[in-house]
Design brief:
The complex is a heterodimer of chains A (258) and B (72). By secondary structure, chain A is an all-alpha fold. Chain A is 74% helix and 0% strand. Chain A has one domain. Chain B is built from three helices and no strands. Chain B has a domain of 41 residues. Classes of the chains: A mainly alpha (258), B mainly alpha (72). Chains A and B meet through helix 1, helix 2, helix 3, helix 4 and helix 8 of A and helix 2 and helix 3 of B.
């Protein structure tokens, strides 16, 4: 690939040239702090509204009673665990193929947050499974493929931190992340491909969702809360990753002396 | 209120799942904030040690403006 900016004029000093002087990582380190605060604040607000709606306002389910209220943390956590994996793989691909420093930082930041969503989905699912199916855990296709997702997040983090040379570590971990992408459609279609205990999705199918509107609204609010939270948490973590990978650069040194 | 907390007999399952998920989210928001502070302290200490050793001789990428940085 030829240098994409070679045709850019050298002067006047534009925002773009300024970014060249300090680099995109320095730029990102600065704006991540602001965005994380806004996303985090929005997530907190929506979480409180959504939890109130899900726990207090939505009616009890005619079959599952009040136990179905676990849905409001379980489904967003499970959905975001897959979303986090997709973002991690995209970042890893950017780092591996185009040598984007921000790509590696993004992927490294996604892994622990994605693992947290996965643990949340598995634990809340177990706590829902006990009263509904009679067991905390069954070796069902949906549960097993979600457990594999957790191991992929752990595997990525382990590999990314195992090798001393950071760029090499990122590349090795990126290959694992990309290979693990195959697990995402398996999780998604597991409830259709295999006979499972896990119920199919009630929302997101084409047409009318199989869920009452009073139950649906808090769920949508929780989805939004979890998504905003994800961006906030990842941006906070990216700042740490950038400090580590850029520790020898001028901008980090300026930050320390300034 | 007691009825609300009782959750129709599912109190343990409902409240512990909300507790676990909320705890995980709070932890993963706060921990990088603390980690960043620790990192800045650590890097400052390293920089101070380098200055005491009489200069900047670690051969690092000082300009922060390599081709990859510009393209990233």
């Amino acid at each position: 690939m030829s240098a994409p900016h070679s045709s850019q004029p050298k002067r006047p000093v534009s925002e773009r040239t300024r970014r060249h002087q300090f680099g995109a990582p320095a730029h990102c380190y600065q704006f991540a702090a602001q965005w994380a605060k806004w996303f985090g604040g929005g997530a907190l607000l929506l979480f409180l509204v959504g939890a109130y709606g899900g726990l207090a306002v939505a009616p009890a389910d005619y079959q599952m009673g009040h136990s179905y209220r676990i849905l409001y943390v379980h489904a967003p956590a499970a959905w975001m665990s897959m979303f986090a994996y997709a973002v991690m793989a995209a970042g890893a691909a950017g780092g591996l193929i185009w040598h984007l420093k921000l790509g590696d930082a993004l992927a490294r930041a996604c892994a622990p947050v994605g693992a947290a969503f996965t643990v949340g989905a598995l634990v809340s699912g177990a706590l829902w499974g006990k009263p509904t199916w009679g067991a905390y855990w069954v070796w069902d296709a949906r549960l097993t493929s979600e457990l594999v997702l957790l191991f992929l997040f752990f595997g990525y983090s382990a590999l990314a931190n195992a090798i001393e040379e950071r760029r090499t570590a990122s590349s090795a971990a990126a290959i694992l992340a990309l290979a693990g992408l195959v697990n995402l459609p398996i999780i998604h279609y597991s409830v259709e491909w295999w006979n499972t205990l896990h119920q199919p999705a009630s929302v997101g199918k084409f047409g009318k969702p199989d869920i009452a509107i009073q139950m649906l609204i808090p769920l949508l609010i929780m989805f939004a809360a979890f998504k905003l939270y994800f961006f906030a948490a990842v941006l906070n973590r990216m700042r740490c990753e950038l400090l580590i990978s850029e520790r020898r650069t001028k901008w980090v040194r300026a930050l320390l002396h300034g | 209120m007691a009825e609300f907390l009782h959750m129709g007999g599912y109190a343990w399952y409902v409240w512990s799942s909300y507790g676990v998920v909320t705890g995980l989210l709070v932890y993963h928001y706060v921990s990088p904030l603390c980690k960043r502070r620790a990192l800045l302290r650590e890097l400052s200490a390293e920089a101070a040690a380098r200055r005491d050793n009489g200069g900047d001789d670690d051969g690092g990428d000082d300009d922060g403006n390599t081709k990859t940085a510009a393209r990233a």
